[in-house]
Design goal:
The chain has 347 residues and is mainly beta. It folds into two domains: 84 residues, Sandwich (Immunoglobulin-like), CATH 2.60.40.1130; 196 residues, Immunoglobulin-like. It contains one helix and 20 strands. The strands form five sheets. It has a six-stranded mixed β-sheet with strand order 16-15-10-9-19-20, with no helix packed on it. A hairpin with a 6-residue loop joins strand 17 and strand 18. The radius of gyration is 28 Å and the shape is globular.
């Protein structure tokens, strides 16, 4: 890295007799110190399971001997090729990192002027066997005996490793869980418990769906527990599902008991955070607004729901990514771990 030196100097005051025809003195110019700014890391993408692409604010090269990729257990991932494409640096692996496992890329890059930047960037191994799945049932009005939960329905066989479910959106989560490797079958259910008790019996199941204890653990469903989970926002929020942290979107759920008239600053959503997340899932195609910018009226209203009166996805109907896909189950109708019914709550 270049060492920048700033030269401070002063010009003495010179008294000059002005005579007609004299040539003016030239103004002294500052020294040109050149480019002293290090490159800026802008983000990463994963074009395939063997490539990690890092984007910078300017053209960079990786310093020889500084590139190191490690898995979650400290094992090395061998890099076979490093290519620079203008502002992008592509790292190619001999073997793809293990699916769904958190890895770290550590390297030092420099720009044409020799300015350096040291990086420590987390990423997740791509899972090529991730099955299709949708958010299927939700309780945000949980109780001490029936805490907040989200259920996913798996529609084809595959491995769930690395999938991300969060309250909020990827990169803007209140709480989240990255799924462990689970060999799921078509028709399986996954229950994510957002308010665990923190007891030993609460086990993230990977082999046996009956292995976990804890409140509302289901012996035929895959139970996962959000570590330190505090429960979901009761009346106003976003839940989103992704293939992995930093990966493509799969599904989302927008809920609110507010209206466009509830406030004038955040389109009725009550906070900039909820509005920002609602806009993000609409821009990603995960949720559809009925007309114009997303409003609370485009969300599912959770107010009639309770701990046992959960919010159901309509069974056997096409996913439209909108509130019309959902209804409130009758009292006692919550069915986490089994198929949704068709009976609708009537006040």
């Amino acid at each position: 890295m270049k060492t920048a030196r700033m030269v401070l100097y002063s010009t003495p005051l010179i008294a000059t007799l002005l005579i007609s025809g004299c040539v003016p003195l030239e103004e002294p110019s500052l020294f040109d110190l050149g480019d002293l700014a290090p490159p800026i890391f802008l983000g990463l993408s994963q074009p395939d399971d063997r490539t990690l692409s890092l984007e910078f604010s300017e053209a960079v090269t990786a310093k020889e001997g500084t590139v190191r990729i490690t898995g979650s257990s400290g094992e090395s991932v061998t890099v076979t090729q490093i290519l620079d494409h203008k502002h992008t640096l592509d790292l190619t692996f001999v073997q793809p990192p293990e699916a769904g496992i958190r890895c770290t890329a550590e390297l030092s890059v420099s720009d044409e002027a020799g300015n350096s930047l040291d990086l420590l960037v987390p990423f997740y191994g791509i899972n090529p066997d991730l099955p299709a799945m949708l958010i299927n049932e939700i309780t945000t009005q949980g109780s001490s005996s029936s805490p907040d939960m989200v259920e996913l329905r798996v529609s084809e066989a595959g491995n769930l490793a690395g999938a991300l479910l969060c309250e909020g959106i990827d990169g803007d989560c209140i709480q989240e869980i990255v799924f462990p490797p689970i060999e799921a079958l078509a028709g399986d259910f996954v229950i994510i418990h957002f308010k665990p008790q923190g007891i030993e019996e609460e086990i993230n199941e990977t082999d046996d769906p009956a292995a976990s204890g804890g409140l509302k653990a289901h012996p035929q469903a895959w139970d996962l527990w959000v570590q330190g989970g505090s429960g979901l926002s009761g009346n106003n929020g976003v839940i989103a599902l992704y293939t992995r942290p930093g990966g493509p979107a799969i599904d989302a759920f927008l809920y609110s008991n507010r209206t466009s008239e509830s406030d004038s600053d955040y389109r009725g959503f009550g906070s900039s955070a909820v509005l920002r997340r609602a806009e993000a899932i609409c821009e990603a195609g995960m949720w559809m607004a009925a007309d114009g910018p997303v409003r609370p009226e485009d969300a599912v209203n959770p107010e009639p729901s309770t701990a046992t009166r959960s919010m159901f996805r309509k069974p056997e109907e096409a996913d439209t990514n909108s509130s019309v896909d959902w209804f409130i189950a009758p009292t006692g109708g919550a069915s986490f771990g089994s198929a949704n019914g068709n009976e609708v709550y009537e006040p």
